[in-house]
Request: fold
Amino acid sequence: MAETLTITSTSRQEKYVDLIPQLKALLENETDLIANLANTAAALRQTFGFFWVGFYWVKGNELVLAPFQGDIACTRIPFHKGVCGACYTQAQTLIVADVEKFEGHIACSSLSKSEIVVPIIQHKKVIGVLDVDSDVLDDFSDIDKKYLEEICNFLANIIQ
Reply:
């Protein structure tokens, strides 16, 4: 099992293409949820230099902070609040080019400018979300959506 990443590409899409097989190799034989979420957050932040990368997990009637990389974050998010709550409620990926223009945005950090949130769906139910923030406006595209959804689908399939 490789515990270091080798990313030699320069374009965002090529970085995902380099990262995903390495990430899958790292995670596929590990059964611990926390370890897999932590390594996924670290790999994404290390590869792309995103401002914040982390997970929120469904607990009761809210999303609760799970492993992440970055500054201190909001600990609990109601299902109906912010981009993470909207992602949970809609069960679909949301890309927000300017978080200040998203009604109900929760400002865990004033440095966050754009965001992508991807649901993790298991047995047709959202069990958590992957939240990635950038300190650059309009930093996320359909490329990120495609590959982050692939990562989240993989996570959903290996979570027990």
